[in-house]
Amino acid sequence: MAAPGNHDARKGGFAYFRNGGLSRLWLALPLAVYLLLPTRNYYWDGVAFAINVEKQLPLRETLHPNHLLYTAAYVWLYHAALLIGIETRALFLMQFVNSLLAGASVALVYRALRRRAIRMEGAIAGALAFAFAGAWWKFSTDADAYIPAIFLLLCANDLLETRRSLVLAGITHAAAMLFHQLAFLFLPIALLRLKEPKQRLSYAACSLGPAGIAYILAYRVVCGQFRAAGLAGWVMAHSPDASFSWQPVRDLWLTLEGTLRLFFGGRLNQAAAEPFTIIGAVAVVACVVGLAVGWRRGGPLRFRVPPRDLLLWVGVYAAFLFVWMPQNTFYRLFYLAPLVIGACCAVRRTRVDRLFPWMVCGVLFLWNLVFAIYPQSRVENNAPLRFALAQHEHWPPGTPIAFHTFHPDLWTISYFNQQAAWIGFDKMDLDRLEQNLIAARQRGQPLWLEATAYDFLSADPAGRRWLASHPAPALLRFQDPKHEFRFYAVP
User: Fold this and answer.
1) Angle at 289 between CA 283 and CA 292, to 5 degrees
2) Among 35, 135, 347, 461, which residue has the least CB neighbours within 10 Å?
């Protein structure tokens, strides 16, 4: 006879599955897919992060005001991984962690939907729609600061909605801001949910206090001094090509297009004509037909106004991004979750065919898999990476390669050729160049000049004389409609 405790455990397990535990296993699917199909079309910022992590830079050089602790956190994590014997590259570690956090975010979206009285099946479908939205899926398999920041925001949102701890919610929000500044815009949404002034003051102190202290300390570390005006300028620093846009018609179009591209990524011409693509395209069409049939069976959609906190969440971010770099779809990831949750709330009283929500997920999944994720997971579709991997035989360990400008394509080429010795040639120092050439000849190797270094020499009379005094360099060249790579081997 089974012990009563064991019987109860089995009964509890069966009850769990009867109550939808088996259905909730669908929420593990996105994580599995993220891990199986990591992108090879790397976000250029992610490659730069990985380079800096592996350089073992001093703390002050890892602190960037836009994503204050992201690089510093990964420096610690990367070296912790090496310390315990995990041999990996920083880029791959960042991708892996992002996939884990993105998978956890899907579960948080599901929890938020259930708290909004969405039925289990609808909540699972909504969470999967979030998981397989094109921009989220792509960045979930890449190295970037957006996924950790949004995961922390969703954690803060969860703590606020469950009223577990305002202090912990505020601290979590502060952590999100330290991973990306755009998380700051969640503050009015959080304060709207709190009814009492004392609660609002407590949350503001717990979120803004730690973030403010961290920025003050970081500024002191970076600059070696403290000035209020300098701190404000440093916190609001941005790249030269980042700016506000005041073209309403253009900005409206970019906002609509960017919001659509949150859900449907890729391009038709990205996918090669092969069996997988053909089968996937047929499946997309079948799901679209299924959607049309399900819509007809269920009748017209009945909309309700979504909860105002979700409207504010979407509205605050959409309004800011309407004028701040509206062409950047990836910033819009910060309002993807409330957009999906709000849409589910808006149609929750509509009677539709029970397969209708799954067909929506099917269209999103198949479209993005066929026309975005699968092509981007293949090395041959990333020209700098394909070129970089092909040079391993041309550039054996220790090969000196001089460059003048460290441009984004060169980030990828150098990162995947770490066996070479990359030499920054930022000023006309021909003696140093000659010394590198002599050292290379002693090892039986040429000195390679990347295009920017060769062009820099060619533009200067002394540089032209140096080039003319040596045998004509051999040219290694790759060119396609979007890229051109040139490397000159000086024997």
Assistant:
1) 145
2) 461
3-state secondary structure of 435: helix
pLDDT in tens, 230-276: 888 898 888 877 888 899 999 999 999 999 999 998 877 766 767 77
CA distance 179 to 299: 45
**Length reported for the chain:** 491
Residue 423 exposed, middle or buried by CB count within 10 Å (0-12, 13-18, 19+): middle
- Secondary structure of residue 444 in the 3-state scheme: coil
| pTM as predicted | 0.91
For 446, which DSSP code? P
**Which residues have CB under 8 Å from 433's CB, separation 6+?**
402, 425, 447, 466
Q: First-to-last CA distance in the chain?
A: 84
How distant, in Å, are the alpha carbons of 158, 199, 434 from that of 107? 11, 27, 59
Rounded CA gap, 334 and 324, in Å?
Answer: 14
DSSP state letter for 475:
E
Phi, psi at 490, each rounded to 5°: -90, 110
- Structure token digits, residue 201: 């003051």
Residue 53 contacts residue 75 (beta carbons within 8 Å): yes
62 in Cβ contact with 71 (< 8 Å):
yes
CB neighbours of residue 190 within 10 Å: 23
β-strands 447-450, 400-403: how paired? Answer: parallel
* Extended beta strands in 233-372, E state: none
Phi, psi of 309 (to 5 degrees): -65, -35
CA–CA distance, 111 with 116 (Å, rounded to integer): 9
The model's pLDDT over 140-164, given as tens digits with 9 standing for 90+, comes to 999 999 999 999 999 999 999 988 8
Question: Which two tokens mark 352?
Answer: 């539709």
Q: Helical H runs in 116-244?
A: 120-131, 134-140, 146-162, 166-179, 187-193, 197-223, 228-235
